[in-house]
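WARN no homologs supplied; continuing
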Amino acid sequence: MNMDPHNISDEESQAIFELQSSDAESSTDEEKEVPIEDKNSTGNSSVWKATSNILSAVEGIGFLALPYVIKRGGIAIIVAFLILPICSWYTGKLLVECLYDGDEKNKRVRARSTFKELGEIILPKYGGYVVTFFEKWCLFLGSVSYVVLCGSLMSHTIPSIPMTAWICIAGVIVFPTTFPKSMTEIGWLSIISVVALISVVVSVLWYGLGHMNKWDVKSVLFWNSEGISIALPILVLSYGSHLILPTVELSMREKHKFKLALALAYIINAFIKIVFSFLAFLSFGSNTDQVILNNLPEGTLRACCNLLFVSSCLFSYALLVFPILVFIQTTEIYEHSFSKFPKIASFVIRAILVLLSVLVATIFPKFAYLVSFAGSLNEPTFFFILPCAVHLKLKFKQLKIYQVCLDVFLIATGIACGIFGIIFSVKALVSK
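OK structure emitted
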């Protein structure tokens, strides 16, 4: 069955069409005759918008916990601050490379568009469904975590209004941000989000620089095994952006510059995180809280920082919801049931998704612990294991021995991070 292009807007048709798999049953004969390479040329996002989208995704809910990460992990974690962005750039590059095959003229042709297709490479019968479930679940958890964090920060800023009310207010605010129909439009929201985040960094550092007399470099631990096991999964979560990389790359006007956009995003993000985390820890030392904004004195500065970070989360919400919406709109159920009234269906689906995230956030106001547990399983999978496993399966004969060893090492690292993260998350859930 084919989706009637007259029932939806051109931009939405393009967004849905771009993210359909190459073997989707809804493709028409004419679409099958168009070279995949031509289909992949429809994006119009610039390098900087792509970079902003990746930066916005990498920001994550764990950003405010990074000074605490240094407190627990010490120098070993500072080293990890430098290594993980390189690993993430490498596996992100592999992930997108695995979407392409070479044709008889040795040109790159996009043969895959979804995580389902990548999962089928590992486990042909069920792998695609398993990976798709974890992908969409992880994105939904991320969207809920943003709403929870907004409610938590605002309830501390204005205690007279309960956290549940703030979560509902956050849901009302994020609802309009779900209507952009392309990653290019979402790129503008991401730019606002990144600016708000940088403002928080500058504010916290400004306060810290005013208390340089309290800095004590010797307070940084050299090694703490238990602290590292707690800090490393949080750090991995803070560098996870792989779930949106295929969508970002597909949205780019110049797809050959994706590696540049990815590198720029991680260089900028690593610089911000290292400077912010280290100096913020020095400013508060052993008193560094799990949420660094709680260390700021109550008053105007703390309220402004809370509001800025809340705005950053609100403008990042759409980035996680967009792939879920496109997935829903490419299903046969949606096509059969809602193709006759697409505008109403689009509104209802967005409303339901936002309501679900608000409902779950309200029921589980400490949902961050559940997110940490699920993220300990999901993030290492998409960060380390899946890109390297698919890379080995598809291109093993073309790889050099050091590439094979590196992929195997990263898979083992992902498994270890997942185990440590699950243990820590379960302990946190039980203790709470």
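Residues 1-41 have pLDDT under 50 and may be disordered.
OK
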